[in-house]
UniProtKB/TrEMBL annotation:
Keywords, sorted A to Z: Oxidoreductase, Peroxidase
Family matches, as SUPFAM superfamilies: Heme-dependent peroxidases (SSF48113)
Lineage of the species this protein comes from: Eukaryota, Metazoa, Ecdysozoa, Arthropoda, Hexapoda
GO MF annotation terms: heme binding; peroxidase activity
Pfam families per record: An_peroxidase (PF03098)
Keyword Oxidoreductase: yes
Positions in coiled-coil regions: none
Keyword Transferase: no
Protein name: Heme peroxidase
PANTHER family: CURLY SU (PTHR11475:SF106), OXIDASE/PEROXIDASE (PTHR11475)
Gene Ontology BP term (one): response to oxidative stress
Amino acid sequence: KTFVVYFVGSKTPYNTLTGVIDGNTVYGVTEEFSRHLRSGYMGQLRMNPVFAEFGLKDLLPLKLDIPDEGCTRSNNTQYCFEAGEIRVNEQLVLTCMHTLMAREHNRIAVELSKINPHWDDETLYQEA
């Protein structure tokens, strides 16, 4: 059999340079989910301080509302992490990157609050 394939558009990928950072992996794609990820305090994202007593840094929050969505659990007492996108639990490297980006957001928010103590939660969150 012979198949005819028609190409529509350019064969060359279209790419442009931009200064815009796609923060969906950190902040989510909807305003509602973005609010869900926020702590509501000092412009920070929710985090899980489970190992703070050992002097270790915070982890991403646990996914408690729909625990099996985008998550493979061996039993009902284990939970996966929650971040701006569902793929956060697919690979350890993705989980690490999401964790680092959330920690960096919170670090910047804390520093901005020191420089600008008059800023509210929303301003700190948006600027961080």
